[in-house]
Amino acid sequence: MHHITRPAVLLLLSLGLAACGTTAQAPAEPPAKQATAPGQIRSMLWVGNSFFYYNNSMHGHLGQLLMAQSDNGKRNARNVSATISGSGINWHDMEAYFKPGGVSSYSFVGDNEVRFNTFDKPFDAVMMMDCSQCPIHPKLQSVFHEFAKKHSDTVRKHGAEPVLFMSWAYSDKPEMTAPLAAEYTKVGKANNALVVPAGLAFANSVAKRADIPLIIGDKRHPTLQGTYLGACTVLASVYKVNPVGNKYTAGLPADVAAHLQAVAWETVQKYHAENGRGSL
Questions:
Q1: Which first-to-last residue range defines the signal peptide (predicted)?
Q2: pLDDT tens for residues 93-116?
Q3: Secondary structure E strands in 148-220
Q4: If I label 118, which of 33, 58, 171, 202 is the partner at 20 to 30 A Cα–Cα?
């Protein structure tokens, strides 16, 4: 029998431990979320307030517009709305909207059948809107700038792109249009984010056809015409699709729908030619 001396035993043990150490694998870090490629918005979350959810929600009308212009007549994009009545941009917990098993984790299809969704990320883009006057309110303007950045950073961390929805002026205060546009443009450029110029589209529509009411009697919330105009502006800005001639009219008279489609497209083209499109 051969005897191994104690130093040799220690050497063998140390080599064995070293060998074990080299084979152990550190836990793999989760892969980074793939950033949304320009023009590839297939799913979008709308984060805002009652300006979005009036008239069965603006995102629903956008879905109909997208379906009407698709080649197969089927919905080719998913839009989900997360709104709080009267909310400002800081009321929303953006991180929570990306929580696994949370928003958009399942859908109802067919005869109330539940389908559990699987995807790398729930949304390609998140469209945000502050309260109607917050961006220009002396006590809340700084909050708008602060949370537009915070939310944009959170959205990008999850591989999506931030989008800002420029709200419109109250019907009795058209002077709100220019400062709202200025603040949204400023924040969009600061965060390299796309801005949807809905507020300017409202003003342009009124200038051309004041007979088409865009805001209800409370002087703030949209009529069906206003919601439709907003949806057309989103179609033109985010999806880069010309709404002119789209067969979905939300039941509006043909001439009214045609006017709103044209205003949305003209406003978007002019605005982005002058101010850029951010990262989208």
A1: 1-28
A2: 999 999 998 898 888 888 888 888
A3: 161-165, 194-196
A4: 58
With beta carbons less than 8 A apart as the criterion, state whether 139 and 146 touch: no
- Is 29 within the bounds of a domain? no
Type of residue at 172:
D
Q: What CATH number is attached to the domain comprising 158?
A: 3.40.50.1110
Dihedral sign, Cα of residue 161, residue 184, residue 165, residue 133: positive
Strand pairing class (125-128; 113-116):
unpaired
Closest CA to 215 of 45, 50, 48: 50
In this prediction the pTM is 0.85
Question: How confident is the model over 7-33, as a mean pLDDT?
Answer: 38
Tokens of 244: 């002119």
- Residue 21 burial class via C-beta count within 10 angstroms: exposed 0-12, middle 13-18, buried 19 and up: exposed
For residue 255, the model assigns a pLDDT of 98
Write down the number of H helices and E strands in the chain.
9, 7
Taking the C-alpha atoms of residue 213 and residue 230, their distance in angstroms, rounded to an integer, is: 13
Domain count, the chain: 1
Whole domain around residue 59: which residue ranges? Answer: 37-275
pLDDT in tens, 24-46: 343 344 444 555 554 578 999 99
Is the separation of the CB atoms in 114 and 35 below 8 Å? no
Token pair listed for 19 = 């060998």
Token pair of 43 as six digits: 């799913």
Contact of 256 with 223, CB cutoff 8 Å: no
Dihedral (CA of 178, 163, 171, 85) sign: negative
CB atoms within 10 A of CB 151: 24
DSSP string, 179-209: HHHHHHHHHHHHTT-EEE-HHHHHHHHHHH-
Q: What is the DSSP-derived secondary structure letter of residue 99? A: -
Look at residue 234 and tell me if it is in a domain. Answer: yes
Distance, in Å, from the CA atom of 265 to the CA atom of 89, rounded to the nearest integer, reads: 27
* CA–CA gap between residue 261 and residue 75 (Å, rounded): 20
